Amino acid sequence: MPRWSIIFVRIVDRLNYGVGRFAMYLLFVLMAILMWSAISKTFFNPSLWTLEAAQFAMVAYYILGGPYSMQMGSHVRMDLFYARWSDRQRAWTDAFTVLALIFYLGVMLWGAFDSFGYSLGLKWTEPGALGLSWPEIGRLERSPTAWRPYLWPIKLVLCLGFFLMLLQSIAYLIRDIATIRGETI
């Protein structure tokens, strides 16, 4: 395998390992938010922000932990025939399915960036004299709840999570190609 592909796989693995280990601690943030929600409902006035903050923490935990889960092989796999196949047969199957995953993640990343731009109020101006249009930042999108937080931070997390999952999928494809060629990374 070319040296750049080995370096790419190692960098992506190291990056997703670090982000995944960080994402693990978001579960404690979620538990703290839910504990405060229970305490405030019992002894004080209920907090307006706890439900939505818990949802944001759970989304960040799930999305940022996805590439780490994929890297560790802890995702769900239908194992009816797969377990009996040779490593090369598995690599061929995985290479085919990871191409479908890369396409899917590309579409999801596109949608996430579009939604992120919308949350920033990004609008494109009419083309000017040079035929170029420039982005204008308008009103920032807010949640329609009583707490009304800005939505761009969680949409940025979605973009980051889908991008990291896409990188991990490409790293898996490179590993599968190496296995098919009889090499290891």
UniProtKB/TrEMBL annotation:
This protein's UniProt keywords: Cell inner membrane, Cell membrane, Membrane, Transmembrane, Transmembrane helix, Transport
Bilayer-spanning residue ranges: 21-39, 51-70, 91-113, 150-174
Localization, UniProt: Cell inner membrane
Main location: membrane
Domain Tripartite ATP-independent periplasmic transporters DctQ component: 30-178
GO cellular component, one term: plasma membrane
The keyword Membrane appears for this protein: yes
Molecular function per GO: transmembrane transporter activity
Membrane topology: Multi-pass membrane protein
Pfam families the record matches: DctQ
Function in brief: Part of the tripartite ATP-independent periplasmic (TRAP) transport system.
UniProt subunit comment: The complex comprises the extracytoplasmic solute receptor protein and the two transmembrane proteins.
PANTHER family xref list: 2,3-DIKETO-L-GULONATE TRAP TRANSPORTER SMALL PERMEASE PROTEIN YIAM (PTHR35011), SLL1102 PROTEIN (PTHR35011:SF4)
Stated family: Belongs to the TRAP transporter small permease family.
Descriptive protein name: TRAP transporter small permease protein
Species per Swiss-Prot/TrEMBL record: Gemmobacter fulvus
